[in-house]
Design the sequence.
């Protein structure tokens, strides 16, 4: 599973630990690619700037990781990444949008408490 997000997300274990505990290996982009991803999130996406070139660059990073490390999925570990990437951009891997995962978990918890 590839993990994309801000440097803080990619360099710390709070996302990686639950996956590893579930037996799922998580791969991080190279340090250079982590810097690129972080910069695109902070300078562009967080400011509502969505560029075609950025989308292509992020897709290239993910596709190279998938091919090199034989990955079957990618976690968009920053809510802004779903502004530019989604499942429709990748045919051979599963894409997990952390915003959708968090929303589903919150709704599930709420529904449990209401029962």
Sequence:
């Amino acid at each position: 599973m590839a993990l994309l997000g801000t440097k803080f997300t990619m360099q710390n274990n709070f996302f990686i630990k639950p996956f590893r505990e579930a037996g799922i290996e998580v791969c991080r982009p190279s340090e250079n690619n982590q810097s690129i991803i972080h910069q695109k999130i902070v300078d562009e996406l967080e400011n509502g700037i969505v560029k075609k070139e950025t989308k292509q660059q992020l897709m290239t990073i993910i596709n190279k990781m998938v091919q090199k490390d034989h990955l079957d999925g990618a976690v968009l570990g920053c809510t802004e990444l779903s502004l530019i990437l989604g499942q429709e951009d990748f045919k051979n891997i599963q894409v997990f949008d952390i915003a959708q995962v968090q929303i589903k978990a919150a709704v599930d918890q709420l529904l449990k408490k209401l029962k």
